[in-house]
Amino acid sequence: MTMPATRYATTADGLSIAYQQFGDSGPNVVWVTGTASHIELFWELPGWAYTLRRLSSFSRVTWFDKRGAGLSDRTLGSGSLEDRMEDIRAVMDAVGVKSAVLIGLSESAAICAVFAAAFPERVERLVVIAGWAHNPRVGDAAELFETSWGKGRLLEMIWAQGMTDWELLGRMERAMGTPRSMAALFRASAAIDARPVLPLVTVPTLVVHCTADPMIPVTHAHEVASLIPNAELVEVGGAFHGSGRPEDMGRYGEAIERFVLGSDRQSTPTGDRVLATVLFTDIVDSTERAAAEGDTHWAELLDDHDRICSRAVENARGRIVKMTGDGLLATFDGPATAITAAHKIIDHLGVIGVHVRAGIHTGEVERRGDDIGGIGVNLAARVMSAAGDDEVWVSSTVPGLTVGAPIEFESKGKRALKGIPGDWELFAAQLMRS
Questions:
Q1: According to DSSP H, which parts of 57-152 are helical?
Q2: How far apart are CA 243 and CA 203, in angstroms?
Q3: What is the pLDDT of residue 77?
Q4: What is the DSSP letter of 2?
Q5: Which residues are paired to 430 by β-bridges?
Q6: CA triplet 63, 65, 69: central angle to 5 degrees?
Q7: What is the dihedral of CA 363, 343, 115, 220, to 10 degrees?
Q8: H-type helices in 177-284, by residue range?
Q9: Residues 55 and 29 sit within 8 Å (Cβ to Cβ)
Q10: Distance between CA 332 and CA 429 in Å, rounded?
Q11: Does domain 7-260 have CATH number 3.40.50.1110?
Q12: Which residues does residue 427 pair with via DSSP β-bridges, in sequence order?
């Protein structure tokens, strides 16, 4: 099979994402590459070429370079997880795939798991290869990339173990990114924490990991498999993360083929219970303010409030669930955009003399037609109630899901929230000013 043509999808934030599609029939498979990625040059690695051809023999494969690497735009946007999830959605839409088996490699495992929890109707099955939910030690390699990237040795260590064609590997490294950009990607990966989200994954999941992976210890696979309900864990023998040897990569391929084509294939979940980021706001001292303003002026202020809030949510690609009279309930694909929208609301309402508080939580919600419910909604409301005037507070699930976004968090300590089991650490979220 010759290398397929490279095409581009456009994300909602205007970035170009390079993708390829190959294979004529079978289930749709979307492969999300790892940090070091170049979808054209990977075909020159024997192990990878073998794996891609094997996949294409029983499925219709789409794979792509994520933002910031390879042939895609060399920017992370805000760098948040929801931005990188947007790459998946944009590519799937570009090729007309409504749902697919989603394969996440290395740090993309966490991105794919969050996508599967948020959009179960678009994910038939999830495959996690050599991945992790939270691995701060990945950041330890960033300095090594700043000093040694471009010579081929690091790529052999990560994705091409067993190869010694240093000229080829060096050329591939230089094409994948600069030393500085690759170091930044590894630091961003080190900050990912998808552990709170993994229990919300409802699609059938396979976790595949090499027993002696020199980059990511197999204990990370055990953690991922223990957190995702009913996940299947397959350990393959060897000492590689990604390999230039077909016999190594074939061990991944065998497990993937069996899982993708398994006789126990299930229908796509209905999506009634999904991962969402919930934003609640309310106007500070609204009752007293309404009495002081009088009915007519207060009604005009509420109209202005609703217009400002709707515009801020829409610009952040969120959805207004409902206005609550003196506030709003909205949902977003992820917390970074929700935090941005909340601060826009606070800033713009401040101009007309209206002060609000905001609370944000990322967790499971229940879809009820156009409305939502469940403990995730209640938790966001409780977080909002704890916030001060013109403050945005978030639950403990949020910071680890905003990796790379220009947001700072200040811990407000653990608190008991009315009607919510356990104590929750809350954080004040601020946008970093450039």
A1: 81-94, 108-118, 142-148
A2: 28
A3: 67
A4: P
A5: 408
A6: 165
A7: -70
A8: 179-190, 219-227, 246-260
A9: yes
A10: 16
A11: no
A12: 394, 411
Output the pTM of the full model: 0.86
243 SS3 class: strand
Q: Which residue has the tokens 């492969």?
A: 31
For residue 370 the two structure tokens come to 């156009």
Alpha carbon separation from 314 to 11, 202, 338 (Å, rounded):
16, 28, 11
Confidence grade of residue 80 (pLDDT, cut at 50, 70, 90): confident
Q: Where are the alpha helices (DSSP H) in 316-374?
A: 335-351
pLDDT value at residue 35: 86
Pairing type for strands 60-64 and 16-22 reads: antiparallel
Q: How far is the C-alpha of 149 from the C-alpha of 174, rounded, in Å?
A: 8
Q: Where are the domains of the chain?
A: 7-260, 273-431
Q: Which of 259, 281, 248, 404 is nearest to 336 (CA)?
A: 404
CATH 3.40.50.300 fits 273-431, yes or no: no
The residues, ordered by sequence, that sit 6+ positions from 34 with a Cβ below 8 Å of its Cβ are: 105, 106, 107, 108, 158, 159, 242
Whose structure tokens read 């609550």?
324
What tens digit of pLDDT does each residue of 143-162 get?
889 999 999 999 998 888 88
CB 163 within 8 A of CB 169: yes
Q: Are 72 and 9 in contact (CB under 8 A)?
A: no
- Can you tell me the distance from the alpha carbon of 86 to that of 114, in angstroms, rounded to the nearest whole number? 11
What six digits make up the tokens of 394? Answer: 């978030």
Are the CB atoms for 328 and 305 separated by under 8 Å?
no
**Distance separating alpha carbons of residues 346 and 353, to the nearest angstrom:** 10
The secondary structure element, H or E, covering residue 281 is strand 273-283
C-alpha 429/C-alpha 148 separation (Å) is 36
Check if the beta carbon of residue 225 is closer than 8 Å to that of residue 110: no
Q: What's residue 121's pLDDT?
A: 93
**DSSP one-letter code for 320:** E
Cβ neighbours of residue 77 under 8 Å, at least 6 residues apart? 11, 13, 15, 67, 83
| Amino acid at site 326 | D
